[in-house]
Prior knowledge:
By secondary structure, this protein is an all-alpha fold. About 75% of the residues lie in helices and about 0% in strands.
Amino acid sequence: xxxxxxxxxxxxxxxxxxxxxxxxxxxxxxxxxxxxxxxxxxxxxxxxxxxxxxxxxxxxxxxxxxxxxxxxxxxxxxxxxxxxxxxxxxxxxxxxxxxxxxxxxxxxxxxxxxxxxxxxxxxxxxxxxxxxxxxxxxxxxxxxxxxxxxxxxxxxxxxxxxxxxxxxxxxxxxxxxxxxxxxxxxxxxxxxxxxxxxxxxxxxxxxxxxxxxxxxxxxxxxxxxxxxxxxxxxxxxxxxxxxxxxxxxxxxxxxxxxxxxxxxxxxxxxxxxxxxxxxxxxxxxxxxxxxxxxxxxxxxxxxxxxxxxxxxxxxxxxxxxxxxxxxxxxxxxxxxxxxxxxxxxxxxxxxxxxxxxxxxxxxxxxxxxxxxxxxxxxxxxxxxxxxxxxxxxxxxxxxxxxxxxxx
Length: 407
């Protein structure tokens, strides 16, 4: 009971702070919200059980390693905001660098379409799990209906109104997460029995593949790259750092607070198994998680649908109309839904974004070499090698990212 009261108090305080204080009107917060909302979705909820199954007590260390990789990839995106954007703006259409940048945009559009399937698959898993069902065919039909509703809404001109509502759920999502973290902390503090700790498995290539396969759970910082019409480069760079710092602290705190439940987490079934953990603390918290997951997934799916369609329209140089782009993105999402299970779509989405990040690393190296010819040296020696190494790590993630095994 104490954990429930603390969770709702914490959620209420965070929601009030983000909704009714000057924070909401801050330009820095507005620039931080977009990448932060993309990074922290229901991936925040699924990573605990999946890491517990593969890494046991080393789950927090594995999460930290994933966050470090994401932060260094973020540094490449920040480099491109500062240095590559001006170079690309001055490039001729047929410049190889311009073609590489357009290829990156096309890959990102596909990645977003896949991630929509990922978000809605998770939503279906959470909803069906919350009502005691686990049926793959029913889940696919449910997700297909949601995708159809999103496309119809877009084609009838109401999509951007839905997007405004989706953005409004960011404060609610962060409030729910704060409540869940406080509930875990209070339960750990008040528990009288010693927790059962799961053993740490031996390191394996499969574990490394799983870690790469979870890249989608910490992805989203790249959205700052495409906010140039709203914020200057300095603001986007600074607030992307804020988003990665805050999300990293939340992820690590969550995994650490899950420690008493790692054995239970390792034996949960499906990607929505975290519902069982919070329901164990208090049944009402299971509903709390379900509500937060639903708000999070709908928000992210709407945003990425628009992102995928917008990029597809831009890459096609308007050959695809906005409606045709939405239809194409929706069709790809439906295809992913029917050809993958919930675990496979996590890895597939991670692989798609890993390819996009590898392209961004290549752009950073090429731009650096071009600027050096002009007497500007934004990347020197080891820094260039570090970016190249990050590109190789992203390629490895794309090749080795593995789905977690279902329970």
